[in-house]
Amino acid sequence: MTAVEFNYNLQHLIPALEPFAYKLTKDSANAKDLIQETMLKAFSNKEKFMVGTNMKAWVFTIMRNTFLTNYQKSARQKTFIDTSENLHFINSTSIKQENSAYGNFAMNDIQKAIAELDDAYSEPFMMYFRGFKYHEISDRLSIPIGTVKNRIFLARKELKEVLSMYAN
């Protein structure tokens, strides 16, 4: 294939590449940049194209690989790695002051709401909260697993209504 034929075939693939580039980038300006970069790579690597193979598939593969490489580069650039020796200051609580009054009010309201639940609902709910599995609660309370799930659901629903003031 001559260079003129290669360039001609490459130019006619641009309309087919546009939707794929937009699908990858979700932005028309970035899609145009990706197409331009793909065309540049395809043109500069035309000697690697084997005559008789599918040129469209070859160019689409170049585009996909270019997009993935650029995406990985941008992800690496956004990653912050602190190499200083002061790592102990990152999560230090010695400088942080906290007002726990709001948390105390919320916790008191939660405990009060759970205490006001019917025992049939609060017992399975608290067991689930402590980490028991549904089948373990079912075995310990000698009730069907469906009943356990229902009671936990109803307890959550009632607690959500009672504690709606803490939703945000």
Automatic annotation (TrEMBL):
Domain RNA polymerase sigma factor 70 region 4 type: 109-159
Listed CDD domains: Sigma70_r4
Alphabetized UniProt keyword annotations: Sigma factor, Transcription, Transcription regulation
GO biological process terms held by the UniProt record: DNA-templated transcription initiation
GO molecular function: DNA binding; sigma factor activity
Sequence ranges assigned to domain RNA polymerase sigma-70 region in this UniProt record: 12-76
Organism superkingdom: Bacteria
KW Nuclease (keyword) present: no
NCBIfam families named in the record: sigma70-ECF
Family: Belongs to the sigma-70 factor family. ECF subfamily.
Protein name: RNA polymerase sigma factor
Organism for this UniProt entry: Flammeovirga pectinis
